[in-house]
Amino acid sequence: MVKSFGEFLLFLQSMLTRKERAVVLWQRTLDECVIIGINSIFIVAIVSAFIGAVTCVQIAYNLTNPLIPKSTIGYMVREMTILELAPTITSIVLAGKVGSSIAGGLGTMRITEQVSALEVMGINSASYLVLPRILASMLMFPLLVILAMALSIIGGYLAGSLTGALSAQEYIEGIRTDFIPYNIVFALIKSVVFAFLVSAISSFKGFYTQGGALEVGAASTTAVNNSIIAILVADFALAALLL
Amino acid sequence: MIEVHNVQKSFDGNQVLKGITCRFETGKCNLLLGGSGTGKSVLLQCIVGLMKPDLGSITFDGTVFTNNKVNIRQEIRRKIGMLFQGSALFDSMTVHENVEFPLKMLTPDMTREERRDRVEFCLKRVGLENAGTKMPSEISGGMKKRVGIARAIAPNCTYLFCDEPNSGLDPLTSIKIDELIYEITHEYNITTVVVTHDMNSVIEIGDHIIFLYKGQKLWDGNKDEILNAQVPELKEFIFSSSLVRAAKKVDDETEGGLAAATTDEAINI
Predict the structure, then answer these.
(1) Which CATH number fits domain B1-79+158-224: 3.40.640.10, 3.40.190.10, 3.40.50.300, 3.30.70.100?
(2) Which residue among A104, A153, B72, B172 is least enclosed by CB atoms within 10 Å?
(3) How many CB atoms are located within 10 Å of the residue A8 CB?
């Protein structure tokens, strides 16, 4: 494990030495932003809207004490969404979608000698292939998390109103109660860290794939597993450090 | 000219290259010949820098490549074109974009029009002037090899490396690819190194042949000398092909050297 971590650090270092020209890096990053960000909007929207809805309904189900105002449901949906569900669940979903795509793509390039072709041309393959993916992830994950926050709260609003758990007025009153802007900052910091972890771990696993199609599949699975574990560990560490 | 001096390479204690010393001459098709597992591809990867030899040195036209400064290695690498066994085309790009890619990356001073002209020239040179808009998945294996050659020569390479260019191709397409490599080598006076175990290629394009056996160089010479080589391992290797046995028979009967024993005549026998 220590050896793997050392190799991971060397991999990150190799990406930063002999970088490609800024214009090439920028174009590649924009391309990756489309693949990682734009193409993930649908799944993030669906997941976050339903998580917001389910959170609202389940809190309402558990909150039976008549002394607690119903607006608390809105307050709790907001807090859970912003602090945990939007950044963490979105990143876990993206670890599955983006992480497996990165590992699979790089693994396929490796076993079909496309990475070697870049190296023979004198191009730093890690810098050309991996750095744009990491930068694009770090740019797009926070935007997707902001979207997830908004849709999750809207999902909670719709679920609460449609099921009659609470009125729209109560929900809005709840989500406006005791708002702490730092929580948004904290969530965005988390999303940037998670983006780095997902993209770097997945790239590392894909980049050093050896063998054939089966190994590419195995690399994708390992990349997703490791990314999710890294997200959960980092989630705890960041909460302990920053809250 | 590429000079290889005492190159050694081991994997987990298994010595794959046992001190190989040889030279690949400019303007010639240099063939690295040998059976499977003799270290041909490992030697090629050491030469192009995809692997680092444990010992020994590799020199490109007098400039040491092995263990030299990164910028010098980069300069040499930018003069290298390589045709991979599986072509290694970038599957997210069209044929035109594949050939244009090294120009975009290595020659930023070229204008878009200059790049387009160069790509069109290279595609025309390999006979694929109408395939520019196709994706690699839409073209045949032989066409992929041609695109690979076009991509390799696009930035005016000085050294061309081909890793088993005939693998997976039918005999006729193989001959066409061999001819293309041979023509390009002599047309542009580049140093070409071809890794092969195909005796047809030896007969067609072997200006200079190096025979590897169990990680060692056992013989070197040209295509006219190879049939009369007195190395038992080489004789066993080349005469395992019935086509070559037939060619040898023609060679002996005509006494005109191997050049007289064309593949067609061999087939007729």
Answers:
(1) 3.40.50.300
(2) B172
(3) 16
